[in-house]
Amino acid sequence: MKSRSLSALLLLLSGCSGPQSVLGAYGQAAIALKDLIVFIVLVAILIWLAVVLFMAFALLRRQRQPVLDSRSERRIMAVVAIATAATAFVVAVLTIASFYTTRALNSDGTADLTITVRAQQWWWQFIYADQDQRQMFQTANELHIPVGRTVRLHLQAGDVIHSFWVPSLAGKLDLIPGRENILTLRAEKPGVYRGQCAEFCGLQHSHMAFVVIAEDDADYQHWSTMQRLDGASPSGAEAIAGQAVFLAKPCAACHTIRGTPASGSTGPDLTHVGSRRTIAAGLLETTRGSLAAWIADPQTLKPGNNMPVVPLTADELRQLSAYMESLR
């Protein structure tokens, strides 16, 4: 019995850590939320202890007067009044704490970086704005930010309601069609933080994940410089043939690869798809094998997604996967 209880406790505690934990807070907003959670839990524990001690005192105290007299009634009324006042005070304190925490979640100051986040069934599009339109670029399901910098996210939805949630960095906020919401991120520690759509948005809602990669300034600047470049020219017979297959098939009508005639906007930008950690919104690691599997039959891997099955021969599939892997 003891071993079962210990196992259950360990199972519960396992939820306090991991790649997506509100208690593993490394962002300014997430730290404020964690402090609020801890404060509320401590207050609740103190209230519980006070109630238990009062009940124990009442049960153990010898009843001297079997019949209530006016003095006893006054004592009871006093206890009720004190309990009511204490309840009102606790509710007021928690309300004020929640109010100031909410205000602290979004900074009104100047942001160091502005990124547009567009959620679609079932993937994430991140558009990095720049005053020079030629310097703008976008990624899919992978958000890079510099450590210690304030990043303002403009949240938009392309179809249904979604919700952007990176518990280690900030609270969640909905993305609503026809309306733009603003969320501020600030990572205080380098790392890879998992995010997830937190609003049910259809069949593949659970497979709509992304990662936020917080990097030092030098690493972030190197990454952003590379992302602004056009797609790498293929080298090797297979990759060169794969580019020809990509441009000849419907792929080029849905996807963009900068530096080629492909300029579709329906699906993710594939200019640097080979450098991303995952494909299909966190479903598969980016390897040549997973790229080939996804291209061959996306509906089996992620039923209901908007990528159609494109008829390909075995040679074309091999060539196309080699080209996708080369886009780094």
TrEMBL record:
Function recorded in the entry: Subunits I and II form the functional core of the enzyme complex. Electrons originating in cytochrome c are transferred via heme a and Cu(A) to the binuclear center formed by heme a3 and Cu(B).
InterPro entries found in the cross-reference section: CcO_II, CcO_II-like_C, Copper_CuA, Cupredoxin, CuRO_CcO_Caa3_II, Cyt_c-like_dom, Cyt_c-like_dom_sf, Cyt_c_oxidase_su2
Subcellular localization: Membrane
Originating species: Rhizobium mesosinicum
Predominant localisation class: membrane
Entry keyword set: Copper, Electron transport, Heme, Iron, Membrane, Metal-binding, Respiratory chain, Transmembrane, Transmembrane helix, Transport
Xref: Pfam families: COX2 (PF00116), Cytochrom_C (PF00034)
Mode of membrane association: Multi-pass membrane protein
Family affiliation: Belongs to the cytochrome c oxidase subunit 2 family.
Catalytic activity field: 4 Fe(II)-[cytochrome c] + O2 + 8 H(+)(in) = 4 Fe(III)-[cytochrome c] + 2 H2O + 4 H(+)(out)
PROSITE patterns: COX2, COX2_CUA, CYTC, PROKAR_LIPOPROTEIN
Protein name (Swiss-Prot/TrEMBL): Cytochrome aa3 subunit 2
Bilayer-crossing regions: 37-60, 76-100
Domain (Cytochrome c): residue spans on this chain: 237-328
Chain's gene name: coxB
NCBIfam families: CoxB
Keyword Cytoplasm set for record: no
Domain annotation Cytochrome oxidase subunit II copper A binding: ranges: 110-226
